[in-house]
């Protein structure tokens, strides 16, 4: 459903499903999103828009660099255990500012070091790979977050093992609007 929505978005044939007043009233009683999307807070990558989804369809968590911490993991656990979501997508994107800052290194102000710290391993590996370090790091960061979530005990790991939840990674192309799977 996510990829079909993205294909509609890329083709310019969005349906804008579940965005009516009736849907608003329907989800007032409760939500049952089919997927969780952990995406970057970047304003150019809104999951409901790029996947052509509506109210109550997605449980969206956005944070710079699509990194994961205990609070984000807990939110995902809630979405899969209590709301019935069966898919978690970790969505990175090209030209990510958080990834670029992490690869660049050096001093960063405020609380930014906490985000950069989450990407440390991906940054180190990306810098020694052939090709563009930022692009490599975007992909590696998605892969590491997917693995971290799949191994998260006790809830996510057990649901993945039981086959009731799937955790996948993808990357958004800012130029084409296309979401491309990231294999792990």
What's the gist of this structure?
The chain is α/β, with parallel strands linked by helices and 184 residues long.
List the helices and strands and how they pair.
Blueprint: H1 2-11, H2 21-28, E1 35-39, H3 47-50, E2 58-62, H4 70-81, E3 87-93, H5 97-104, H6 112-118, H7 120-127, H8 133-150, H9 155-162, E4 166-172, E5 179-182
Parallel strand pairs: 1-2, 1-3, 3-4
Antiparallel strand pairs: 4-5
Helix pairs in contact: 7-8
Task: Let me know the average pLDDT.
Answer: 96
Lateral arrangement of strands in the main beta sheet? 2-1-3-4-5
Report how far the terminal alpha carbons are from each other: 21 Å
Helical content (DSSP H or I, runs of 4+): 40-55%
Q: What is the count of β-strands?
A: 5
CATH class (first level) name: Alpha Beta
Over the alpha carbons, how many angstroms does the gyration radius reach? Answer: 17 Å
Q: What sort of overall outline do the alpha carbons produce when their principal axes are compared?
A: globular
The low-confidence runs, each spanning 5 or more residues with pLDDT under 50, are none
